């Protein structure tokens, strides 16, 4: 199982969901599934366990979004949430979900490291340090 690939798919899904409104007839669950399937089509996952993990990350992040955003806003003193780069914002959201709300309790250091790796891959040159700083403040 590749949790990193599942996190990448979840990040792409969260980014897609944030940028696009669902069709009027679509439920939140159907919209999430559609967005995750689109992400997985671009970057296939190794198996059903990875898909389920990515789906749980997306669902849990979206269900706890208000509390997650409140925690990020309290920690990111110099930046308002809406001024953060969309990729960075969704990486931090995903990591906060895993640290505070995830069903499986993961070591905070691992969660932060995985988020930094996502930031290096998908963000700007400064994203890794930025994500590390915000998550370090939240974990402390």
Keywords for this entry:
140 residues, N-utilizing Substance Protein B Homolog, Chain A, mainly alpha
Could you explain the architecture of this structure?
The protein folds into two domains: 1-63; 64-140, N-utilizing Substance Protein B Homolog, Chain A (Orthogonal Bundle). It is globular, with a radius of gyration of 14 Å. It is mainly α and 140 residues long. 74% of the residues lie in helices and 0% in strands. It has seven helices and no strands. The mean pLDDT is 91. α1 crosses α2, α4 (65-75) packs across α5 and α5 packs parallel to α7. The chain has helices at residues 3-19, 28-42, 48-63, 65-75, 86-101, 108-122, 127-139.
Indicate the CATH architecture of the largest domain. Orthogonal Bundle
Radius of gyration: 14 Å
**General form:** globular
Give the beta-strand count: 0
Report the CATH superfamily of the largest domain.
Answer: NusB-like
List the helices and strands and how they pair.
Elements: H1 3-19, H2 28-42, H3 48-63, H4 65-75, H5 86-101, H6 108-122, H7 127-139
Helix pairs in contact: 1-2, 1-3, 1-5, 2-3, 3-5, 4-5, 5-6, 5-7, 6-7
Short description:
This protein is mostly helical and 140 residues long. The chain has helices at residues 3-19, 28-42, 48-63, 65-75, 86-101, 108-122, 127-139. It folds into 2 domains: 1-63; 64-140, Orthogonal Bundle (N-utilizing Substance Protein B Homolog, Chain A).
């Amino acid at each position: 199982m590749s949790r990193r690939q599942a996190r990448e798919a979840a990040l792409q899904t969260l980014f897609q969901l944030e940028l696009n409104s669902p069709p009027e007839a679509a439920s939140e669950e159907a919209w999430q599934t559609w967005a995750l399937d689109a992400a997985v089509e671009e970057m296939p996952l190794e198996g059903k366990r990875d898909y389920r993990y990515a789906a749980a990350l997306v669902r849990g992040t979206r269900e706890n979004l208000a509390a997650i955003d409140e925690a990020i806003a309290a920690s990111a003193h110099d930046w308002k949430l809406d001024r953060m780069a969309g990729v960075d914002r969704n990486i931090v959201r995903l990591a906060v979900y895993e640290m505070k709300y995830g069903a499986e309790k993961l070591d905070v250091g691992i969660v932060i490291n995985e988020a930094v790796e996502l930031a290096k891959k998908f963000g700007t040159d400064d994203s890794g340090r930025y994500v590390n700083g915000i998550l370090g403040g939240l974990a402390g």
